[in-house]
Amino acid sequence: SSMARRGRHSPRRCCCRPASVTAVSDGHATLHGGCHCGRVRFEVDAASGFEVLDCNCSICRMTGFLHLIVPASRFRLLSGADELVEYTFNTEAAKHRFCRHCGIKSFYVPRSHPHGFSVNARCLDGVDVAALKVVAFDDRDRDAATAAVAHLTDG
Prior knowledge:
Blueprint: H1 2-7, E1 21-23, E2 28-34, E3 41-47, E4 51-55, H2 58-63, E5 67-71, E6 75-79, E7 84-87, E8 95-99, E9 107-109, E10 116-120, E11 133-137, H3 142-148
Parallel strand pairs: 4-11
Antiparallel strand pairs: 1-2, 2-3, 3-6, 5-10, 7-8, 8-9, 9-10
């Protein structure tokens, strides 16, 4: 059956894939990442020592998404645009994009920053999530939380 065939698809990347970092002249580094099966790949320019947000909304809490929010100009989808499916709910402002093969949401357009991207730090190659500074984003007080991180999508 096609389900069995898909289930036997071997991942193109491993959870122990080494970090792939390229220095960028403005104090940012280019990090690479993607979904579990490797069909969706991207690169993102992140400031050295970047922080990630841990949102307590229903979808982020349930999926364990750790947000690295960047302006759209610092995110590049390298492959897999045709492999993505989109899910919206509530206000439909956030554009949750999942790989249609493995189900991983490695990035999306967040409601708090509709002109940028939120990359799941857990989907970055070779990044030690335990070593990152994690900042709480309290969705119960969304306006204040959004105002506190508005600078993250500044050019």
